[in-house]
Known about the structure:
Chain A is mainly α. The first copy, chain A, has a single domain (3-432), classed as Ammonium transporter AmtB like domains (Ammonium transporter fold), CATH 1.10.3430.10. Chain A is 67% helix and 0% strand. Chain A has 16 helices and no strands. In chain A, helix 1 (3-35) runs parallel beside helix 5, helix 6 (137-158) runs antiparallel to helix 8 and helix 8 (176-194) packs parallel to helix 14. Chain A is globular. The N and C termini of chain A lie far apart (70 Å). The mean pLDDT of chain A is 96. Chains in contact: A-B, A-C, B-C. At the A-C interface, helix 1, helix 2, helix 3, helix 4 and helix 5 of A face helix 1, helix 9, helix 10, helix 11 and helix 12 of C.
Amino acid sequence: MSPDAQFVLNTFAFLIWGALVMWMAAGFTMLESGSVRTKNASVICLKNLGLYAIAGLAFYVVGYNIMYVDVTGWIGSFSLFYTASDAEIALVGGNEAMKSEVIDNGYSVMSDWFFQMVFVATAASIVSGALAERIRLWAFFAFVLVLTAFIYPVVGAWTWGAGWLSELGFSDFAGSTIVHSTGGWAALAGAIILGPRLGKFKKDGTVTPTPPSSVPIVTLGVFILWFGWFGFNGGSQLALGSVSDAVSVAGILVNTNLAGAAGVLAAILVSRPILGGFDLFAILNGALAGLVSITAAPAMHQHWLAIVIGFIGGVICVLSIKLLDKLKVDDVVGAVPVHLFAGIWGTIAVAFTVREAGSFVDQLLVQLLGIGAVGVFVFAASFGVWKLIDVLLGGIRVTKTVERIGQDAAELGVDAYPEFVLMPEEYDDEDDK
Amino acid sequence: MSPDAQFVLNTFAFLIWGALVMWMAAGFTMLESGSVRTKNASVICLKNLGLYAIAGLAFYVVGYNIMYVDVTGWIGSFSLFYTASDAEIALVGGNEAMKSEVIDNGYSVMSDWFFQMVFVATAASIVSGALAERIRLWAFFAFVLVLTAFIYPVVGAWTWGAGWLSELGFSDFAGSTIVHSTGGWAALAGAIILGPRLGKFKKDGTVTPTPPSSVPIVTLGVFILWFGWFGFNGGSQLALGSVSDAVSVAGILVNTNLAGAAGVLAAILVSRPILGGFDLFAILNGALAGLVSITAAPAMHQHWLAIVIGFIGGVICVLSIKLLDKLKVDDVVGAVPVHLFAGIWGTIAVAFTVREAGSFVDQLLVQLLGIGAVGVFVFAASFGVWKLIDVLLGGIRVTKTVERIGQDAAELGVDAYPEFVLMPEEYDDEDDK
Amino acid sequence: MSPDAQFVLNTFAFLIWGALVMWMAAGFTMLESGSVRTKNASVICLKNLGLYAIAGLAFYVVGYNIMYVDVTGWIGSFSLFYTASDAEIALVGGNEAMKSEVIDNGYSVMSDWFFQMVFVATAASIVSGALAERIRLWAFFAFVLVLTAFIYPVVGAWTWGAGWLSELGFSDFAGSTIVHSTGGWAALAGAIILGPRLGKFKKDGTVTPTPPSSVPIVTLGVFILWFGWFGFNGGSQLALGSVSDAVSVAGILVNTNLAGAAGVLAAILVSRPILGGFDLFAILNGALAGLVSITAAPAMHQHWLAIVIGFIGGVICVLSIKLLDKLKVDDVVGAVPVHLFAGIWGTIAVAFTVREAGSFVDQLLVQLLGIGAVGVFVFAASFGVWKLIDVLLGGIRVTKTVERIGQDAAELGVDAYPEFVLMPEEYDDEDDK
């Protein structure tokens, strides 16, 4: 294949797979909007649209440079904005002499930016679900700005940006840790600081289930995410310009699908023994946990192993839903079980197929180091930022009154389904104390 | 074009069109979830997510091999699992010497698997809609396992697997019969065994309309399916590596769209005279019937003929909605009119443009033979499997109490819209007899 | 790259980007169905499915030829139907000798038709939202037929069809004016003739907000549109067969995304000062206004300028929402602010980066001329057609009784959410006068 054909195919792959990943933003929105109570289903839509916009702008202004430009082990450049190369601008302007210089890059500069940008948006989407129904809109937007401009890019610099973790041989193909666990740690820090929703965990130890506003909308969200995941993992090959790349991408899509399917199967089988009942939300999350699990190493030929990895991811997800309830951490959509715990599992599982760091044990140790380092950094940074926002904005949690009324009416003035008659909510006086 | 560029384009076409076909699973889910009564809108989501997972795993473990590997007229291999070729694995592992052997296959082995896998899921999706609101969850999953592991692959072996029907010249480009009618026959067998929902057909001969839970969600499902159909038909060219292939795929997308549009138009025009009123569901199904009709032969240059075929498909759909009501067959979403009857029509219409079997009459006879053979096999096999599951699981239909309460509350414990106040249902004592 | 590889890539780009634009039809459907009151949420689904079907058929029968074939300054050919070239048909038929003639066209003939067809559907989709809740179904379908068969193709002939505006140097890359403003002017003419919904504008000068049926469905629509816009703008490069094209398309997707994000940000910041409150619908429309604004010139390397253009588009959108209320023009979904006003702004902004007509001032004047000419023609033609339909069908507006009851019950006999209990509407006696 000629170098220009390779260039075009590589570039187009970034763009079309990237567009599919952008579509995952809609998936998170539907998943979260359907999962929250009806009184908060509008504001979560706004949060998701807003976070996608903020993430894109922040990653353009500073994020990408911190992550990829002149990375010196720990962090990249603080220069502002990012743009096509001079050679590309000259070529498009008609200077054909620049063509070979452009082609030498392998793909269009901005096509890579586009693909990386939709990934940072994914990380931010994970946070909104966990903190739903109680975080103030502006506090959330402020956190997203920091997460997408700094925290995520720093993790990215260590790894995909060729920083210190990358040099040690840490391997995370499409981001089980870099994207999903980063989002998960940030969400966990926020969930701990915010505390659970009113009445979620009773004094007698029982957990109050909160009714989802729309199960079909949640399901739609899961299907959107599954569909978009083909772009997420397939595009992470970062190339389509050779026979070998094409073969790899095909295997990646097959493994992605098998792992998701195995996650569904696992959750169907274990939700009753673990959770005490056949649980639709556990099964929907099982699909996502399977997908997260395979994300760190989808490029392998042992497809049966993708089934095993996805299945274990589904089991871990169901177990950790129960664990969070025990720990009284209120994660509205199960973002932490899906993205953090299954993400950790997926990153560990890399050691079975990848040997960038040496032996199985070497690779396993580096994977654990990476998981730990990212976890400590993201959790600590997020915790600090949440606390800072708490001080600066005078609180990150809505008032009890707002929580009772719902954020839609209180913060937006528009209910999600204003014409529909809703069940009256039952309140427990205990909650008001 | 160089052979490696052809390889990459062929492979990529399988993957991207295949991803669009996977997205159709979401379309069926929305179509069905919106069409059923609110009390069953959650469980149909689970059925659809579950069937997609089961289909993918079953087709990986046995289905693909039965359909495509070593097919000897009637059936392929019973070997387990399926995987990339040794040459591909070696190439990705760095052995460039294997490149020409890999390229000789024309496309990545697993990209074809991926594309075929999403087709088997489509066939299974058709069944869930017809049997909604009364089939037990586990009975449905058990049937899907057999359908996707054996029944569909056998039909596929006869045809796309180069078996006996293929040798006779039977032509079904993207599967009007192989996918859609197969799903339709399986659904019909199930619907007959299950019987209609309580109160659907009154003793006085009237048909009770059942309220859909959400018309916008149904409409979303139709649009998703239409969108995905470009992948379904366009990808069935099975190649994108030549000028001729590209021209063909362009024509396929044009014909697909025109036939769908003509199906809409037909249903708009004939729903009032045939059904006694302007009928939104008939029109939505008209779109799908137009799309199913053109699926057997979308690769043609007579675009006006696509309009005619789609239009007739729309009319057939509306007529057969009425027919099923007369026969007291309760098909909740119209899956049999859309996928079986329009699928038969589309397979017949092939004779106007394809001559693999000889003259028009020869082709027509082979098409009818194929329709008949697939119909007899799938209907009989499905009937038998349903009966077997009936015995093994102690019934495939939920109890009257569960049907009254709704499967969501009874089987899942979670309503689709738990916070919304619903109209009380009116019961007829007659139903309880 | 070899000419046949270029041909395949160009063709495939038309098809895959075009499929994404088709998906925007679902986006408009969701946006509009979620925005209208529940009593009209079914009929708007039918309108959108119907318009997509009518647009595709009309553009096939006459529209494309008027727009692109033998354009002589003002209008193209009135020949019927459109089809692949003889060379293409021969090549697919096996005549390899025709290959070079086919390749000379650069792309498959029907792939371009497909891409252009989905654009005309977009223009029609814009109209349905503005006139929702009061326009008669058949009157709307009749208008769509004329719009897509004649009005839009004439505008297209002047511009993309290489007619007089194109010769003057008018530049509108993906159709801020040609598609979006055309739809917007047609909508505005209809909205003026129809008048506002009952009770929308009170005698005391207040504007009655109408409750949306489903905010999450509206949000889904916005995300679908954003996703599809990558195809809308990226595909408008009309090529993918060279390094330069690939670089341009990458920049286009980046600018599209940044402008949409900036539109969100703008609306978040200005909706409170302008509209008196934080307004979710203004923010959702802000995203679309940002996307419309960049549509006329997304192929540029100054990405910061895309942010500026999108931001201003968002502000204009919010301002013009207020303006329409002042003028008592009832545009149910904000189609005129988004598609007409932001479209005009985007077309003006072209002058900052494009110089097809000469200097900045020359380009600006030609852009203004184009905006004016298209505006006068489309508004006048639409006004005339609406009036004609009014006479021929005996009215384009539903009766007060139908408007009270809702078009779903009155025109379709099926409510969008028939099982849900809705709030009783409050009526004002004033409305009945």
